[in-house]
What we know:
Elements: H1 4-20, E1 30-34, E2 40-42, E3 58-60, E4 66-68, H2 77-86, E5 92-96, H3 99-106, H4 117-123, E6 128-129, H5 137-143, E7 152-155, E8 159-164, H6 167-190, H7 198-208, H8 223-231, H9 237-244, H10 253-263
Parallel strand pairs: 6-7
Antiparallel strand pairs: 1-2, 1-5, 2-3, 3-4, 5-8, 7-8
Helix pairs in contact: 3-6, 4-7, 8-9, 8-10
The structure holds zinc ion (ZN).
Amino acid sequence: MPSERKYRSQMIEFGKMLHQxxxxxxxxGNLSVRLDEDRIxxxxxxxxxxxxxxxxxxxxxxxxxRIQGRRNVSSEIGMHxxxxxxxxxxxxxxxxxxxTATGFAAxxxxxxxxxxxxxxxxxxxxxxxxxxxxxTPELAAALEPLVPQYDAILMANxxxxxxxxxxxxxxxxxxxxxxxxxxxxxxxxxxxxxxxAGTNLQKLMDIRGKYEGSRSVxxxxxxxxxxxxxxxxxxxAKAASSASANSGSRxxxxxxxxxxxxRS
Length: 264
Ligand SMILES: [Zn+2]
C-alpha cells in the first residue's frame, strides 16, 4: 500500500489535472483518500486545486474533525465521509464541476443511456441525485440511496462525484463521466440516439466483471429509463426519462429485454 507521502503527491497531481482540464474553476472541487480505518486525507477549503502544496492538505477523522494540518478541510467533506461510510471498498474520491456533465445535472438529466460500449462496461450508468445544498446533510441525504451501487453520480445543479478503490481510478471515472457527457451532448445536437440493446448489451454485461477497474454493480443503463415504460406502456419516452432521473434501484436484464421488445 502506498505511503501517506505518495497519497499526498497524488492529491496534488490530480488537483492540478482537474484545474488544467477545466473540470473546476477558481476554488471549486475537492479530493480525498482513505489513509486507514480512522483517517481521511482531504483537500482544504478555499484553495485553487492547481495551487496546493502537500502541506496544505488536511487529515480528518471519520466525523470530519481535524487531526492534522493548518488549513480548514473542504466544506464538502460530509459527502466524502458518507461515501467512505457506505462503501468500505472505496479509498479515493474526486468531486468537481466538469461543464458538460454538470450541464446535464443542471438540466435534470441523468447519463443513463447505453450509448457507448466502454462506458457501459466501466460505469454502467450515471444516475442523477436530487439537489441538496452543498456542505449540508441535505446533499448527503440525496446521495445516500445511490452510493451503494454506483461509482459516479451527477448531483443536480451542482456537479459530479466519482470514487474508486484508489484516487487514480476515481479521477479516471470522473474523466470518463465528462467525456461521456460530451458524447451524449453530441447525440442530442444531432437529434438522434441509437442506444445499445439486446444481445449486444448482454455481451457487455458479461465482460463487465472481468474489466480492470470496473467493480461497479450499477444497473444497466436504460433499465431505469425503461421501467416506467413498462409501468405505463402508453406513456411517452419523455415522461419515462424524466421519471427515471432519480431512480436508483437495481433491475433485471430480463426486464430490460422485455422493455426493449415492447419499444421496438
Ligand atoms: Zn461542489
